[in-house]
Amino acid sequence: MTDARGQSKIISADHVIYAFGPEMTHCKRVLPGEILVFETQDCFGGQIKTEEDTFDKVGWDRINPATGPVFIEGAEPGDTLSIEIRDIQVKDTGIMVQVPKMGALGHLIRNQKTVLVTIRNGLAHMPNDIILECRPMIGVIGVAPAQGCIPTGTPGPHGGNMDTRVITKGSTVYLPVNVPGALLALGDLHALMGDGEVLICGIETAGTVTVTTHVLKRTVLPCPVVETESAFYTIWSEESLDRATGELLERTVQLVSRATGWSIEDTIMMLSVKGNLGISQVVDPLKTVRMEIPKSLLKGKSLVI
Q1: Taking the domains of the chain in order of start, what are their residue ranges?
Q2: What class is the 15-216 domain?
Q3: How far is it, in rounded angstroms, from Cα 64 to Cα 61?
Q4: Which residues make beta-bridge pairs with 174?
Q5: What three-state secondary structure class fits 44?
Q6: Secondary structure (3-state) at 69
Q7: Membrane-spanning residues where (predicted)?
Q8: What is the mean pLDDT of the chain?
């Protein structure tokens, strides 16, 4: 369906997946350049409605629904899909849960607790009379892998649950096309989340995401990439932060060297003084790290070539 003005295609939250796989059935076919509005459920699939609804009452089979997938006409294996995030709108209630033995500090949590957070005029009203400015972001955004099924709660080279704060309004996400049509799906919006997501969640909420996609023909990237106004970010996930960091740095060096023509040694030197390594999340099945490469370092050149 389209909106009242006929200018965008609506991807309903009634169409969700819980795993990315090459055999997914798309819910809509779209052309590159069309405006798409994804309606998303919260990461709990709407199962938490009151503060009495604790995490132990949530069905795991309905965790992290991603709306889609969408078939992008013209996208073929060996291409790169660019997803320009034009807008993110979140609902007026967010959810946070604390769960013993879950998250980075679960050993310190004794009791289950659910907190409903009022979101009003771009502000999140937290416990203890703390009011925080929202910065809506997308937790899950991905495409089909070439083979196998990857739960939407797990990040990887296909994207998925990267929980990376720079995936927000105004940024562009670049993901590999592994199957015809790419099969794009997204969800798990956060009104606000800190690097690490140490509790196990941010301020989880439902909402809408408006995007435009484009297909970059015969462009192959070694990892997911996010572009903002001032920087590129490379992203990688592994079972440990050490391994994720090592794999990410090798891929980043490859990309920067290819874009600039610098030697591997010179590229490493430049990244050592201008690259910014950061943690995205430490609570998913795989841990996610990112490297910021300021555009000023690249002198007008793009990492995505």
Answers
A1: 15-216, 225-298
A2: mainly beta
A3: 9
A4: 82, 225
A5: coil
A6: strand
A7: none
A8: 97
